[in-house]
Amino acid sequence: MSMWMIWFAAGVILIIAEMTTFTFYLLWLGIGAFIAALLAWLFPESIWLHILAASVAAILLAVFGKPFAKRFQTGKGFKDAVDELVGKHGEMLEPVAPGSMGIVRVGVETWSAISEEALDKGDKVIVVNRSSTVLHVLKWKGE
């Protein structure tokens, strides 16, 4: 397999991963990989040029693309899919105690979870907040 194909495949994988996260960091890395793919196609023997170009492009895009990403994420109509978990119900798969994490299933996904109260496996919970990849849950007492 040619080096440009490897860089191109890395770019495609990173862009697809970006589409699921909307963090913009993977987008910049993906664009850097595409630039390296182009250089690998033009100069196949200069592997250090590919690596350097991908690195510099990703760093510059991350630094100068941050205002664009922030504007997009705070723009009208943008809604992070993970924020939609707040208010949904789930089930504890692993117990959680105050100060330690457990595992909760919300829909078909599993997440790390914390709670201010002890929760046992099988307890029904409601998501009250999230921080990065951790959901804050409370025991659901029904309506």
From TrEMBL:
Entry keyword Cell division: no
Any Pfam family the entry gives: NfeD
Record Gene3D superfamilies: Nucleic acid-binding proteins
Domain of life where this protein originates: Bacteria
Residue span(s) of domain NfeD-like C-terminal: 82-137
The entry's keywords: Membrane, Transmembrane, Transmembrane helix
InterPro entries named among the record's database cross-references: Membrane_assoc_protease, NA-bd_OB-fold, NfeD-like_C
UniProt-listed PANTHER family: INNER MEMBRANE PROTEIN YBBJ
Protein name: NfeD family protein
Taxonomic lineage of the native organism: Bacteria, Bacillati, Bacillota, Bacilli, Bacillales
